[in-house]
Structure formats: structure tokens, C-alpha cells
Amino acid sequence: MAKAIETDAGHATPGLRAGLEQAKRGEYAAVHTPEQIRARRKAGRPLGSVQATTKKPVQIRLDDDVLTALRATGDGWQTRINDTLRASLMLAGKLPATKPAEDRRRP
Length: 107
Fold this sequence. Notes:
Layout: H1 2-9, H2 16-24, H3 34-40, H4 64-71, H5 77-91, H6 101-104
């Protein structure tokens, strides 16, 4: 059947054969459970925070040279800003001493 469809179309149709095989197995328009969707989800950025303590998005104005220097340190520069602010507040006695930043992050 796929060959007839591709001949009629005049070119190969990517995914056609796999789609027809799915239909034969009764998987066409199947309803998927949340568990099935999670099992097939590709690795990548998480859907939401899995940390016990979440961070809040804020807007802050920084001098251009400060922002450029922070971004130049590579990925994770926003986390380093947070760690620097935390250390400063702990030194000033505004925050209680806590675990090092590496221990606060998820595994």
C-alpha cells in the first residue's frame, strides 16, 4: 500500500510506512495515559522545578560591565549571582549559614 501511495505522490513520503504499521497495530489515534507520555518524553529541560525550594524570577538592573563579566563566565552565571548574593548576605548576618550551593542543587 505504501508503495502505491508513494508512486501516486511521485516521491517518497517520510514516515508513511511507520504510520501504516502503527495503524495496522491499532495504535492510530490511540489515547495515551500520562504515564505513557512521561515514559516517551525526551530528555531535556524539565517541565517544572523539582527542587524543594524554588527560585523566584526577578528583574534587576546591572551595570553593563558587570553583566558582561558575569555572562562571560559561561553557563550558570545566574546561579553564581545567587550564590554571590547569598554569601554576601550571610557575611552581613542577614541570612543564617546554610549548606554550600552544590549541596542545595538537585542531583
